[in-house]
Every structure is written in C-alpha cells, then in structure tokens.
Design goal:
Layout lengths: L1 H20 L16 H6 L3 E7 L2 E5 L7 E3 L12 H5 L8 E2 L7 E5 L5 E5 L2 E2 L18 E2 L2 E5 L1 E3 L17
Parallel strand pairs: 1-4
Antiparallel strand pairs: 1-2, 2-10, 3-9, 5-6, 6-7, 8-9
Length: about 170
C-alpha cells in the first residue's frame, strides 16, 4: 500500500514538472538584426535596460550594470579575447530590448564560437570594476589595447576616467 502512495505522488510531481516546462510563452518578434529567439533571451534574463547615471541615460544589462563598447572592435568581430574578456566580460547574445532601449540589437560569433550581443554594430561588454548597478568606472579607460566607452542613449556621458596605462594595463 505504501509503495502505491509513493508512485502516485511521483506521478503527480512528474506531471507538474512537464506541465510547467510546456507552459512557456513567446514574447513576440525580436528586434534588431540576427537577434534570434526573443523568448529564449527573455528567459535567460538577457533583456537590456536603461539607467540614469549622472546626467546620462546608459544602456545596462538586466541587473543594471553599465554596458560598454571597445574602440578596436568591428561590427563583426570582438578584439577582446583571453585575459581581456576576463576583465571585460562579453554580453552573451541574443538579447532583447527593454523599455526605453533604442538602437539595433544583434549578435556576432566570437573567436571561441560563443555568441555576443551587439548594439548598433558594437559588441557589448560589462566591466569587472563596476561592482554595483548604476556605476560606470570603465568609461574612457585605455586598457587591453584600446579605449572603452559606456553606451549613453541620451545625455552627456560621464567624464573619462584617468588611466595610467596606455596599452593594456597588464590585462
């Protein structure tokens, strides 16, 4: 008798798990070029947002961390690999646009085969020096072989940080 009860509880639990997995909904069409499935991006928490930092409205990830672009990058290739990518983690694509996000979102394939999100043709990154949402400590830094810029959707970007390095800062 006891085994039947356990089988019944197990069957109910399995039914609930299957029902929960099958109840996901699509969020509609994706924005931007090559951005893939928006429902998959939304499910993984990769919806881009905006945040007011100083007098600028910056593009941020879903957790409120500032997003950056790297001057040496091209619209099809990231030039930040290896130790650079440790300090400037690439934003995995695809992503979706949250409220207030303007511009064209897309995806490139990095040299290691992973997908990286882009905004207006710029591969996107966060910065390990930004330890809390709403900070932009990486803006204007000349590190890892080039200059980094926050993405200001409106208003004036924060003044560039002074950097004692001009060619990589040991990254």
């Amino acid at each position: 008798m006891r085994n039947r009860w356990l089988v019944l509880v197990g069957a109910i639990a399995a039914t609930l798990v299957v029902a929960a997995c099958g109840s996901s909904t699509s969020t509609g069409s994706s924005s931007g070029s090559g951005s893939g499935s928006s429902s998959a991006a939304a499910a993984s928490g990769s919806t881009l947002s905006t945040m007011k930092v100083g007098s600028a409205t910056l593009l941020t990830n879903a957790k409120g961390f500032t997003l950056y672009w790297f001057v040496p990058d091209t619209s099809t290739a990231s030039k930040c690999n290896g130790s650079c990518a440790h300090y400037w983690p690439p934003v995995h694509g695809p992503v979706t646009a949250g409220s207030g996000v303007t511009g064209t979102l897309g995806v490139i394939t990095r040299s290691d085969g992973t997908k990286q999100a882009t905004w207006n043709g710029h591969p996107l990154y966060t910065y390990v020096g930004d330890t809390a949402p709403g900070t932009a400590k990486g803006n204007g830094l000349n590190l890892s072989g080039g200059v980094w810029h926050e993405i200001a959707l409106s208003g004036a970007a924060a003044p560039a940080q002074s950097s004692s390095s001009s060619g990589g800062g040991g990254y």
